[in-house]
Amino acid sequence: MRPLPTPSATYHGRERSSYNIPGAPPGTYSLEMRLSSDGFAKVLVTTRSPDELPFHPPLPPQRSLQINRVKRNKILVSWQPSLTTKPHQYCVAMNNRGNYNSMCSAESDQWSGKHGTTITCVGHKTWHQFKGLQRGKTYHFDAFVLDTATNASSTYIGVSATLRGAGGTPHQRFKDDDIVTYKLDESNRHAVNTKYHVGKTKNAILVFVQSCTGPGPVNLHITTGGSSKQDIMSTTVLDIKTLRLPPTNASSWLCLFTCPQDKSIRVFESLNTCHSITIGWKTSADERVKYCIYKKDKEQNLSEPQDFCESYSTGVLVLCRRYHRFSNRRFSDLIMQKIKGLQPDTKYLLEVQVTKVKGEMLPYEQVWARTAKTCSKKVKTKKNKSVF
Fold first, then answer.
1. Tens digits of per-residue pLDDT, 34-51?
2. Is 291 or 162 the better-scoring residue by pLDDT?
3. Are 210 and 244 in contact (CB under 8 A)?
4. CA within 20 to 30 Å of 359's CA: 49, 180, 197, 256, which one?
5. CA distance 171 to 195
6. Are 371 and 343 in contact (CB under 8 A)?
């Protein structure tokens, strides 16, 4: 019995891999593949030079699918065009199990009739509308760019959506100066529609949007009169996806101010003592704002993200004050503040909130800091008393 040849290469998983034989002489080559279970594999063999890489169509920098419209039993998705200059076309897949990481995987499920997978090639279009969908059911959408000469393909990052049941959530309306909180989750397909009626002609409609719980792309669209949409803002939130939209009129919009882009709090550990912590943060562009510092000395549940929409802090108020441009605690656009009266070797959760008169409190990012374990003999502090 002839022994099995030693494999030239071994690959595991579903990732795309390549194998190169440099300087291969002319002749007939045998390609043998073995798999430990049933499956499908797509192979591209070429004698083209590696200088012609990539053999697979390159994807654009923004490689995620976007859900543009959901209406009744239809969902419209779109994607950015490929950067390839070679003949190509786009194909889309839909199934009810999960997103695919290759067109080969999608074709495998379609051939075997699994998971209701369908594949449709749409030519050079960079959008496709899926029709005949069922309410209350979750669908997963993928897009592929296919080299028509070699059938080599690349996969975009897919998206998922759930059509709401027949009842649905009615469109909500909000009035001037109302603060409305929206929670975006699986139950509403991470999207909420709301209406704002303008009774009289206004010079401007001002919308203040605040993300409450951290990173994750959320697009806000304002539609007037019909199907045309104007994308006015993009913000980031966590997976819980909470938005707060307080609409304002011309008489009250000045109560809202702009926080700096960098809302982090810096701890100057070299200045910390056993009874004090020194922190710093970037200033707001508005000189009339007031900064309030809060502290906690108990452990927080870190599994819950910080809610930036909370207008109050559950910590102990340390101080509230303004820092004008000539303050000795302000250095250009940086404010430095020492927090005194703390316990040695203790971990504190510190929070800075900024506000204007009759305005909302907007928090900076929270930060943990620990006081020094041992006290220097040169440092004298008064017990149970804070001095600022």
1. 777 676 777 777 777 766
2. 291
3. yes
4. 197
5. 7
6. yes
